[in-house]
Amino acid sequence: MRVFKFGGASVRDAENVKNVCRVLQTVGYKDSLIVASAMGKTTNALEVVVHNYFQNRFDLAESVEVVKKYHFDIVNELFTDKEHQVFVRLKELFDSITYFLLNNKSPNYNFVYDQIVSYGEIISTTILHFYLQECGITNKWIDARNALKTDTVYRDANVNWDITVENIKREINTDDLCITQGFIGSDYNGFSTTLGREGSDYSAAIFAYALEAQSVTIWKDVPGVLNADPRYFEDTTLLQHISYQEAIELAFYGASVIHPKTLQPLRQKEIPLYVKSFLNPTLAGTNVSKGAPLTPQVPCFIVKKNQLLISLSSKDFSFIMEQNISDIFKLFCEYNIKVNVIQNSAISFSVCVEDKFNHFEDLRLRLVNDYKVSYNENVSLYTVRHFDNNSAERILTGKTLLLKQVNRETMQIVTKE
Ligand code: ASP
Ligand code: MG
Fold first, then answer.
1. 197 C-beta closer than 6 A to ligand 1
2. I need a labelling partner for 212 at 20 to 30 A (CA). Which of 26, 51, 380, 387 fits?
3. Average pLDDT per run of 10 along the chain, which is 417 residues long?
4. Treating both helix axes as pointing N-terminal to C-terminal, what angle do 85-103 and 60-78 enclose, rounded to 10 degrees?
5. Catalyzes what (predicted)?
6. Structural class in CATH, domain 2-220
7. In testing the pocket of ligand 1, which one of 34, 50, 197 has its CB within 8 Å of the most ligand atoms?
8. CATH 3.40.1160.10 residue ranges in the chain?
């Protein structure tokens, strides 16, 4: 069994859906499982629906309409026969979204989010299922929610592995091509849950783990895992073969091609992961597997933008000790602020953090009771794995260095543009 993950970009319009067909015809699809994401930016559009449901009822209907029109435009282009079943099925799905929004009684934002946002994947796989059938690629549509079971931490659900493995083996027991959704599962009451944004890669790994798949391929709009993000660096190189360990490190520091949780289950069963271009499916791409050289051939650059560099110092020149650091970290945890780099000296303590949920102002008001607090907003954190003599210069040209930290394998630099 091979697992193919098709992300949002690979199915963002009719042309790309047709391309999925071409990819399958090129690489074969017997005994395979497709795990697909929502089309294009659908997840963001459904997030707007949820936001409007709670805070702006006036625009709610319109925001559902946007999602509906986007998908109907795609199926209209893909299916000339307007009597095709796909139109009926799609209408049913949108009716059930409307039904839910009218009848829901739960005030729980995250619960409602998962009930609504999960439709993105249900819709995309429904369209793919019918379109592949049209192309002569027989396939079985599988509802991931009957297989992937989670707890009730809506928007960031944790997988119940034992039940999930058993369910997946039961649901996917054919040599035919199967197609299912990434990102979504269900709790023990059958309510939809999601695994966190960009979670479809992780789903692919979960299915692969349960099925002891021979490989997982993530089809992307880039040729594979590059040593640097081409949006920020010139002269990038493709990493041909890297170890699980290296891929985990790269994902951890923020390389966005692979979702960080994806690699653990694959490594456990030594299932190779390929990252390949859906535009050039015969090219080798990147292979993450056992037996890769311990360090890649080139330095790898990872950038995290929009970071916050905070420096705390004691008001009375006393040392910042274990107790202070422990208190400070409790606060970061409480305010859901992710710490990416730590540096401390006798009387000061600096951290580079990501304040995804805009909680820093509240946190700052607590910190100023005990510390002098200074901070720089909107800084960039560069991480270089396996740096060489030119790495720092490559990053720093035209920028101001705010903090630098180096160990044997990794160099981290915080800059202001
Ligand atoms: N559709 C989800 C998202 O956009 C999951 C994914 O694409 O991996 O976050
Ligand atoms: Mg995606």
1. yes
2. 26
3. 97 98 97 98 98 97 98 98 98 98 97 98 98 97 98 97 98 93 98 96 98 97 89 89 90 79 95 96 95 80 94 88 91 93 90 92 95 96 94 92 94 94
4. 170
5. L-aspartate + ATP = 4-phospho-L-aspartate + ADP
6. alpha beta
7. 197
8. 2-220
